UniProtKB/TrEMBL annotation:
Organism from which the protein derives: Shinella lacus
Chain's gene name: nnrD
Its EC number(s): 4.2.1.136, 5.1.99.6
Protein name (Swiss-Prot/TrEMBL): Bifunctional NAD(P)H-hydrate repair enzyme
Binding residue positions for AMP: 412-416, 441
YjeF N-terminal domain mapped to chain residues: 15-213
Binding-site residues for K(+), renumbered to this chain: 63, 123, 159
Length: 495
C-alpha cells in the first residue's frame, strides 16, 4: 500500500462511506467481506497454531459476516470450529446473510457459549462501528471469557470499544490481537482501545487508495512522512543564527531545573543558540549548571521588552517551573504583541486558567504562532467545556482546542494527539511507556521550541518534536530520567 495511505486514520463513519464508494465503483462488496474473513482465519491459524477449538462469536451485522467467512475458512482446513450468534442469524441482510448461508455448520445462540480450556475466541460481534453500550448477554460473555483467561482475536476492533473514541461501551474484550482492514481507526490508537486491541494487523482487502483518500478526513499517524517537507534546510551556508535563537524562561532560584532541561533539549534538537532567561536571584544556580546554553537576566516586562529589540530572537518557551502566574500573563501578552513564536507549557498554561479567552485573544487571527503542550489536567484548565464533553474523542477535543486557540495543540499522554487550527490531526504511536517520568514534558517543550526557531510551522514543529521525543525515549531505554533524554535526541530522520 502507498506510504501515505498507510498513515491514514479513518473514522467508522468514513469507513462506511468508503465501503459504499467501493461498491459503487464496481467492486464486489461480498468479495471484500470474503477477503476480510479469509484474513481473519489466516491470522488465527498463524497466531494460535495450538488452539484446540476456535469459538467464533458472530454479531448481527457485517462484522458477523466476516466471522462466518472466517469460520468457514477454518473449517475447510480441518480446524475445530464452534460458531455462536448474537440474535437470529436468519434475520441477517445483504453480504452478512450470504456469508452465513455459505457456512455449513451448526450455529448456537451466544448465551450458550461456555468457554473451554484450549479455546481461542474470534470476536466478530460488533467491530469498530459500535456507538452504544453492549447488550447484557455480550457483557456476560466478555466476563466469562475474561475469567477463563482465553486468548481473543478481534475482528476490526474488540467488541465493546467505540471505534471513534477508543472508549469502552459498558464492557469490552481485551484482545491478544486485532485484525482490521485497509486503515486504522481512532479506537486502535486512543486509550483504552489502544491497549484492548493488543497487537494490530492491518490487511489490504483491495479497496483502491484513491477511494480511501477521497473519503478520509485529515487524521494520520504521526510519522516523518507527514512533516519531512517542512524540515529545516541544511546547506553549506548554515550558521548558528540561520538555525535560530531560542529563549527559555527560568523559574525562581528554587525551581530552575525544568527550564534547564528545556534549554538543553532545545540545543540538542537543533537550535543554533539557546539563552536561558533567568531572574537575577536564580543566576548563580543556573550559571553553575550551564555551559553551551547562554544566560540572561530578566526580571520584569521592561527587561523583556529591551531583549525583544533584537529581531533575531523569535521563539520562546515559557512555563516549565516558572511559577509566577501574573508575570506569565504579562510576558505572554508582550511576546504576542511583538509577533514572537511561543511554546506555552506547564505553569504557563495554568496561568490562564481563570480566563483562557485572554490567552486566545493574544494570538487570534493571522498565522499560527502558538504551541500549547497540555496533559489532560492542564487541558481542562484552558478548555473546561471540551474536557467535560464525553461525546468527543481525544482527537476531536484537540482539534477544537487548536481551532479555538489558533495554535498547534499537543494533547499529551500515552496516545498523544497533535492538532492544527485548520483541522489536521496526528496521533503519535512511537513513544515508549517509560517516557511518563518527571521532566519529560519539559524536554519536549524545548524540542518544539528548537523546531520552531529553525523555521518550521507550528503544527509540523510540534509533530516532529513529539516523534523525535518518542525516539529519544526509546533509545535512552527503560528506567530513563529526564536528564537522559537530551543526550538521546537523534539527528533528523533521513529515510
Amino acid at each position: 500500500m502507498h506510504q501515505e495511505i498507510d498513515t491514514l486514520i479513518i473514522t467508522p463513519a468514513d469507513m462506511g462511506h468508503i465501503d459504499q464508494a467501493a461498491a459503487a465503483s464496481g467492486l464486489s462488496s461480498y468479495g471484500l467481506m470474503e477477503r476480510a474473513g479469509q484474513a481473519v482465519a489466516a491470522t488465527a491459524l498463524r497466531r494460535f497454531p495450538g488452539a484446540l477449538r476456535f469459538a467464533v462469536l458472530c454479531g448481527p451485522g457485517n462484522n458477523g459476516g466476516d466471522g462466518y467467512v472466517a469460520a468457514r475458512a477454518l473449517q475447510e482446513v480441518g480446524a475445530c470450529v464452534a460458531v455462536y450468534a448474537l440474535g437470529d442469524p436468519g434475520a441477517l441482510k445483504g453480504d452478512a446473510a450470504t456469508a452465513f448461508a455459505a457456512f455449513q455448520g451448526p450455529v448456537a445462540p451466544l448465551v450458550s457459549y461456555a468457554p473451554q480450556p484450549g479455546d481461542v475466541v474470534i470476536d466478530a460481534l460488533f467491530g469498530a462501528g459500535l456507538a452504544r453500550d453492549v447488550p447484557d448477554e455480550v457483557a456476560k460473555t466478555i466476563e466469562a471469557v475474561r475469567r477463563a483467561v482465553l486468548p481473543v482475536l478481534a475482528v476490526d476492533l474488540p467488541s465493546g470499544v467505540d471505534g471513534r473514541t477508543g472508549q469502552v461501551r459498558g464492557a469490552a474484550f481485551e484482545a491478544a490481537a486485532t485484525v482490521t482492514f485497509m486503515c486504522r481507526k481512532p479506537g486502535h490508537l486512543l486509550l483504552p482501545g489502544k491497549t484492548l486491541a493488543g497487537e494490530l494487523e492491518v490487511f489490504d482487502i483491495g479497496i483502491p487508495a484513491r477511494i480511501l483518500a477521497r473519503h478520509a478526513d485529515h487524521m494520520r499517524v504521526n510519522t516523518p512522512a507527514i512533516w519531512r517537507l517542512a524540515l529545516p534546510p541544511q546547506t553549506g551556508a548554515t550558521h548558528k543564527y540561520v538555525r535560530g535563537h531560542l529563549a527559555v524562561f527560568s523559574g525562581p532560584a528554587t525551581a530552575t531545573g525544568a527550564a534547564r532541561l528545556s534549554a538543553m533539549a532545545g540545543l540538542r534538537a537543533g537550535a543554533g543558540l539557546v539563552t536561558l532567561l533567568s531572574p537575577r536571584d536564580a543566576l548563580p544556580a543556573n550559571a553553575a549548571h550551564l555551559t553551551a546554553v547562554m544566560l540572561k537576566a530578566i526580571d520584569n516586562e521592561a527587561d523583556l521588552a529591551a531583549l525583544l529589540d533584537d529581531e533575531r530572537l523569535k521563539t520562546f518557551v515559557l512555563g516549565p517551573g516558572f511559577g509566577d502566574a501574573e508575570k506569565t500573563r504579562a510576558y505572554v501578552k508582550l511576546l504576542a504583541e511583538r509577533d514572537r513564536h511561543l511554546v506555552l507549557d506547564a505553569d504557563g498554561i495554568s496561568a490562564f486558567r481563570d480566563d483562557p479567552a485572554v490567552l486566545f485573544s493574544f494570538f487570534a487571527g493571522g498565522r499560527a504562532r502558538l504551541v500549547l503542550t497540555p496533559h489532560d489536567g492542564e487541558f481542562a484548565r484552558l478548555f473546561p467545556d471540551l474536557a467535560a464533553d464525553k461525546t468527543l474523542s481525544k482527537i476531536e477535543r484537540a482539534q477544537k482546542a487548536a481551532s479555538r486557540s489558533n495554535g498547534a495543540v499537543i494533547l499529551k499522554g500515552a496516545d498523544t494527539v497533535i492538532a492544527a487550527p485548520d483541522g489536521r490531526a496526528l496521533v503519535n504511536e512511537n513513544a515508549p511507556h517509560w517516557l511518563a517520568t518527571a521532566g519529560s514534558g519539559d524536554v519536549l517543550a524545548g524540542m518544539v521550541g528548537a523546531h520552531l526557531t529553525q523555521g518550521m510551522p507550528p503544527f509540523e514543529a510540534a509533530a516532529s518534536a513529539v516523534w523525535r521525543h518518542g525516539e529519544a525515549g526509546r533509545i535512552a531505554g527503560e528506567g530513563l530520567t529526564a536528564e537522559d533524554l537530551p543526550d538521546a535526541i537523534q539527528p533528523w530522520p533521513v529515510a
